[in-house]
Every structure is written in C-alpha cells, then in structure tokens.
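FAQ: What does a ligand-bound record look like?

Like this one, built around zinc ion:
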Amino acid sequence: MRLSEGMPVFSVGKATITRIEETYLPCYPLRDIFPDFSDAHLAKHKSWLAPHHYEAETGRIKLSVHSWLLQVGAKKILIDSCCGNNKVKPGRPFWNMLNVDYLGRLARAGARPEEIDLVMCTHLHHDHVGWNTRQKDGKWVPTFPNARYVFSKPDVDYFSKIDADPKAGPAELGTFRECVIPILEHGRADLVECGPYRLNDFIEIDSAPGHAPGHVFFKLESNGARAAFIGDVWHHLLQVYYPDWNFPKNSDAAQARVSRRKVLDYCAASGALVFPGHVGAPFAGRIEAAQDGYKANFPATGR
Ligand SMILES: [Zn+2]
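The answer part, i.e. the structure of the complex:
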C-alpha cells in the first residue's frame, strides 16, 4: 500500500485500487451491534481494535464509508458509491446531510465522472448507491454519464417490490428512487444474476446473499494476483474471528452467516487481497485460516 494525495493505493497484478473516502467515523455502540461481545473479547482483541476499528472512550465501532476505484486494463471501475451528499439519513447522524468532496477525491485519484466506465454495486443498500446519481434541473440523473452500472437482479427485484408498496416504501430511505430507478430509466443498468458470472477478462461476480438478497462479491484476477471486493459480507474485522456475528439489518440472517463463511473460505484459500466496504484502516488486507477459524491480517500503518 502507498499513499497518493493522501489516499491509500493498492496494487494487485496490473490493477491499481484506490480508496475514495466519504466518511471514517465512530458510529454505533459496539455492544449494541454485537451483543455477544464481552470484556473477554475486548481483552483478546485489544491490540488491534483501537484506534482504527473502535473508539475506546465512547465504546463505538469505527466504520469507513468508501468506494474502491479499480483501474485495470484501461478501464476505470467504481465499486460501491457510498451515501452521497445532502441526503437525510434518519437514525444515522454520522451520515446525515453530508457535504463531502467525494467527486474531487475521485478526480484526484485519476477519474473524472465522465471517465468512469463501470459502476458496480455489491448490493443496493442506501450507503452503496449514493453517488450513482446527482440532481440536475430538479431531476436525478446518472453522475457517471458514460458508465454502465452493474446491479444484481435479485436486489433490483427485491427493492422494487418494497418501493412500490405504499406501506413498506420508499425503499432504503428513498435512495432506491433517487439512485437506482433513474439509472434503470436512463437505460444505463446491466442487471446480472448473482453468479458465478464472468463480467470481463478480469472480474467474476459471485453470490453472497443474506445481508441483502442479491448481495454479490467481485473476484479480480490480474497477472496471477487476486483481489476480492466483498461489500458488506462483513462490516467489521470482529466478524472474521466470529463469523456467526451478524451486523444488524439482513434480509436473511442465517444466509448471511453461510455467505460470510463462503467468502472467508475463498479469501483464505486464494490469498486474495480483500477490500471490504466499511472496515477501518488499513482498509484492505488478507484472511488467513487459523486453527479455530480465521484470522484477519490487516496490518495498520498509521491513521
Ligand atoms: Zn454498507
């Protein structure tokens, strides 16, 4: 990992992957999110939890919200598109009405909006679709006008149904209407089954349902090196050590646990560099098989 313009940049084969930050803040109380977390767990994992993954003074977990800009084979690919600016987020004060220079950061990383070839969402929750669109003349239009947007079809079907139901909608705090439907209406979306599905020379899409019904993860291979973009298969590194610990808000809690073990197995066996959606610094790392499960090898280097 190196820093460019203050942004972490990783290399995998011939691919370059830059973290585009939206926020990196203490969020929820750790013991609310993981009720099984005890003082014994704190003692065991103290060496790495604070300050990158846990704020000791407040007892809150630290979560990052970021995109991954993947540059490979002359393509510029944006993986997950965060919350977006000026969005009301009830119950999430740390992401409410953001005013972040996200597009400036993306440009400094080497991609102006018109240069993005592909936008790929691991799933369609509100914090993964935010920058898909922006407002122009009172309408939501694609932020990345030349991009194809890759969405999983089961997620589109699932959230369409919720959104169309006056009792349940609007889906995902209104972001399905603002950030997904306009992409469908502009004919910019490619809906894919959950896979395994080969997207191009470098990327295969594979299924990891449970947090959302159509949650997918992306496997990258370049020059014999591998990476995995896993979205919210785990939000926090504690879930690597305790794969049965779900983050709240799942379409199917049991399925989320099965998917987490599947992806952990893949990452440990392949040696892929792993790029989660919310894990704190150093934001990417590797998974190792351990005697009683898995171990996270995400060595922090500052911040
Ligand atoms: Zn998320």
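Follow-up question: can I read anything off the structure? Yes, for example: The first strand starts at residue 2 and ends at 4.
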